[in-house]
Design brief:
By secondary structure, this protein is an alpha+beta fold. 20% of the residues lie in helices and 42% in strands.
Length: 123
């Protein structure tokens, strides 16, 4: 099985090697939790984000090397940046919208205008 993997630094300054790194794995479907946990352990970063693309939104989960997290800031920004700037997403009139259904508790909408705007909604 091949899983596309990226390492993205969030909160980067102009200083090289700054920011907070997060792993991002693109999945076609959820793997068993123990496999996701093993991948995060192998990556050995503070968080690894796993995302699945659906027709109108992305599903997102975060794992540290030892447990699944309910929410993580930099590991949310990392896949949003990746989707909007590297992998591409639907762009209309200079705006790009991506919706994440994250954990069982939150819905996150992200927009890129001149910067990335994230809105977290409690379900």
């Amino acid at each position: 099985m091949k899983i596309p993997y990226y390492q993205v630094d969030a909160f980067v300054t102009e200083k090289p090697f700054s920011g907070n790194p997060a792993g991002v794995c693109m999945l076609d479907e959820w793997l068993p939790d123990d496999i996701l946990q093993s991948i995060a352990f192998e990556n050995n970063l503070s968080e690894t984000a796993f995302i699945i693309e659906n027709p109108d939104h992305f599903k997102l989960r975060w794992f540290t090397p030892i447990l699944e997290m309910d929410l993580c800031g930099h590991a949310t920004l990392a896949p949003a940046f990746l989707i909007m700037n590297v992998l591409g997403s639907v762009c209309l009139n200079g705006y790009s919208d991506t919706t994440y259904n994250i954990s069982r508790t939150f819905l996150l909408n992200s927009q890129i205008v001149e910067y990335l705007l994230l809105s977290l909604l409690l379900l």
